[in-house]
């Protein structure tokens, strides 16, 4: 083809549509194939376009100009190069029109080019100036990929849970090594969903009933405990130990009553509770176990005693498994402070297929139907059921077997989660490295500070670095850290029983919760999240060392 002998020479007034392929005369170079993106009056915005060969191995340079053949190519075979702004007089010929789906993909690629530029500008890595810049305690670590994913999902115009969510749930399940992951709109929703699922009548006499007791701890985040109260159950608080900040398992027996039906608690700050002891106790007494893993994504535990799973099958000895795969249901949070983020978000996960269906029902309005969003009649019996006192054939899509909620996420959230998940291994490694560096740097202060210790058999993916003051005044220490721009947090609610909202609640406690009170009075935590550089960690160490004048 010689573009100079085209049958369709254009004139100054001609108009060109988005997706039209044209040969464009360029000054000082040979004419080139372009795709038109837009025309505003006499200015045409087009891009040089290259097409990939079907058989990439036949040519050294896999990209070359294919002229007419390019029009039939789908977007993955096309590459937009330089933009050209030109006028109709420089269009030598029209070569064809790309399909609507190819245009969509090319326009999307152009948007992504701009988004990448924008986000590299918006989120540059900044030099750290000790004492001038704040050292955060936690926070989101975003890059251009996260923003591009989020934009990609919004360009779908789908908005509700969709293709990115399906990919995210699958990828997260593979990462954890669990059968079912369901996303929800927060870690608190995940906890509410997990506990509420265990009240399902579908569980027969295993279903939790109002007044049943659930063993937990008071040194933690309120929404680990609140679902117990919200469902009319009674939390039974057991003390914790230091420096694990997790349940004192020697008090489990004392917590047991004939009403005990479940255990629900967190792996505090990424450190596991004693899984050997807790799982054994739970199975021995037929108790449900919910693991709140909101602060522990990536933490593993290698059991050193024989444990069984929800089916009574043995769990491999001394093999590390992700937390949340030992009990019946586990939860995650994707709020920015957590190991990966989607802004607001969370997940529940389980290996138990029956629980998965129940969780899904409670999450999705309480419905009996399990069709994916946008799908109908997956079971082929949509109009054949007779359930409750509804007439036979009542639409299964509008049949509700649980007192449910809508706790789903949008696909934009899932898209960010998916790109964050690509980075999770690096994030976890950095959290561990920051923890080790802090520990080594503060080890000489052990007369003043109680430093955190990993539970036996655990490999924590640390959420934060907990410190309990052995002497001195916490308020004074916190003020000093704030003055030096080192952010810090208390261990969540301290002793939840002493929170104002607890005055109206019914609960039971084992003993005096002395260590819980100690944490409420003398503990705090500082950051280890991947946004902290070695320089920042060293600054924290030096500043804390100076406080104790070592
Ligand atoms: C242990 C624990 N559980 C639950 C939550 C609640 O998660 P979300 O903020 O996503 O509701 C948090 C929040 O930080 C948490 O630390």
TrEMBL record:
A Pfam match: DegT_DnrJ_EryC1
TM region(s), chain numbering: none
Keyword DNA repair tagged: no
Domain of life where this protein originates: Bacteria
Keywords on record: Pyridoxal phosphate
Keyword Cell cycle: no
InterPro entries tied to this protein: DegT/StrS_aminotransferase, PyrdxlP-dep_Trfase, PyrdxlP-dep_Trfase_major, PyrdxlP-dep_Trfase_small
Family (UniProt): Belongs to the DegT/DnrJ/EryC1 family.
This protein's name: Lipopolysaccharide biosynthesis protein RfbH
Organism: Methylophaga marina
Originating gene: rfbH
């Amino acid at each position: 083809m010689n573009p100079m002998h085209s049958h369709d020479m254009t004139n100054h007034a001609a108009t060109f549509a988005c997706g039209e392929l044209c040969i464009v005369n360029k000054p000082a170079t040979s004419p080139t194939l372009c795709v038109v993106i837009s025309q505003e009056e006499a200015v045409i915005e087009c891009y040089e376009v290259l097409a990939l060969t079907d058989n990439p191995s036949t040519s050294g340079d896999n990209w070359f100009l294919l002229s007419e053949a390019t029009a039939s190519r789908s977007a993955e075979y096309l590459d937009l190069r330089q933009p050209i702004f030109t006028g109709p007089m420089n269009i030598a010929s029209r070569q064809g029109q790309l399909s609507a789906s190819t245009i969509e993909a090319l326009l999307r690629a152009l948007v992504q080019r701009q988004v990448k530029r924008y986000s590299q500008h918006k989120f540059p890595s900044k030099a750290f100036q000790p004492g001038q810049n704040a050292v955060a305690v936690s926070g989101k670590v975003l890059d251009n990929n996260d923003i591009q994913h989020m934009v990609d999902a919004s360009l779908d115009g789908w908005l509700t849970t969709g293709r990115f969510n399906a990919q995210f749930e699958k990828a997260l399940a593979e990462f954890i090594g669990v059968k079912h992951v369901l996303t929800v709109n927060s870690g608190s929703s995940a906890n509410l969903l997990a506990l509420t699922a265990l009240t399902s009548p579908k569980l027969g006499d295993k279903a939790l009933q109002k007044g049943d007791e659930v063993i937990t701890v008071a040194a933690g985040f309120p929404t680990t405990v609140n679902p117990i109260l919200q469902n009319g159950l009674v939390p039974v608080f057991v003390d914790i130990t230091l420096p694990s900040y997790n349940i004192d398992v020697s008090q489990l027996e004392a917590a047991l009553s004939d009403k005990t039906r479940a255990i629900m608690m967190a792996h505090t700050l990424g450190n596991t509770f004693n899984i050997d002891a807790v799982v054994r106790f739970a199975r021995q007494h037929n108790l449900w176990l919910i693991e709140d893993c909101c602060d522990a994504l990536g933490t593993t535990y290698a059991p050193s005693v024989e444990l069984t799973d929800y089916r009574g099958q043995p769990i491999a000895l001394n093999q590390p498994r992700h937390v949340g795969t030992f009990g019946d249901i586990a939860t995650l949070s994707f709020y920015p402070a957590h190991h990966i983020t989607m802004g607001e978000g969370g997940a529940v996960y389980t290996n138990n297929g029956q629980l998965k269906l129940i969780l899904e029902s409670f999450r999705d309005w309480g419905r009996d139907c399990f069709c994916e969003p946008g799908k109908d009649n997956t079971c082929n019996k949509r109009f054949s059921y007779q359930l409750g006192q509804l007439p036979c054939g009542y639409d299964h899509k509008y049949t509700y077997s649980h007192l449910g909620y809508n706790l789903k996420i949008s696909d934009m959230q899932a898209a960010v989660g998916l790109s964050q998940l690509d980075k999770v291994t690096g994030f976890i490694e950095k959290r561990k490295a920051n923890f080790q560096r802090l520990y080594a740097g503060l080890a000489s202060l052990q007369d003043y500070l109680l430093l955190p210790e990993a539970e036996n058999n655990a490999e924590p993916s640390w959420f934060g670095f907990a410190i309990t003051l052995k002497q001195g005044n916490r308020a004074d220490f916190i003020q000093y850290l704030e003055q030096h721009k080192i952010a810090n947090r208390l261990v969540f609610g301290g002793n939840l029983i002493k929170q104002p909202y607890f005055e109206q609640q019914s609960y039971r406690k084992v003993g005096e919760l002395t260590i819980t009170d100690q944490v409420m009075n003398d503990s705090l935590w500082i950051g280890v999240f991947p946004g902290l550089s070695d320089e920042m960690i060293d600054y924290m160490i030096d500043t804390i060392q100076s406080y104790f004048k070592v």
